[in-house]
Write a structure and sequence with these properties.
about 75% helix, mainly alpha
Length: about 150
Amino acid sequence: MVGLEDGCSLRRPVHFLCVTLGLQIAWLLTLAVPVACIAWTVTHEEVFREPRQYCQKECSHARSLLRRKFFYLFTCEYCFSHYVAAATLVITRFRLLFGDWRGYFLSFFALVWMANQYMSIYNRLRLDIRHEQVEIKADEQTVEQREAA
């Protein structure tokens, strides 16, 4: 268990590790990577295209509101990252700043926020790469046209 509580008093239970704030931030930044990776892969990448298309169809055509919202979770990286972050916290028992429920509460929202920052950076990087590829292709076509003339 990772966390920091009341100056790491020796009166605290032995099962709680005393960890510095810097190490907690390092854990947060590290744990956000797999959360972002899983959320992005499920909601955007080609490997999950068929299940995602089914979920998109169900979230727009299902009769029940509950069913529509359930299937929407698998099409929205922000929504899905909450569930991945919750599962990550259950597995790792990571806590931020406090050793009790408050630490889980803070770590949950911090983990979701950091994972979504990573996904935003990745999305922007992909857009920049695509834009560069389009520019290169346009330049190549211009060169080919000049050579043909």
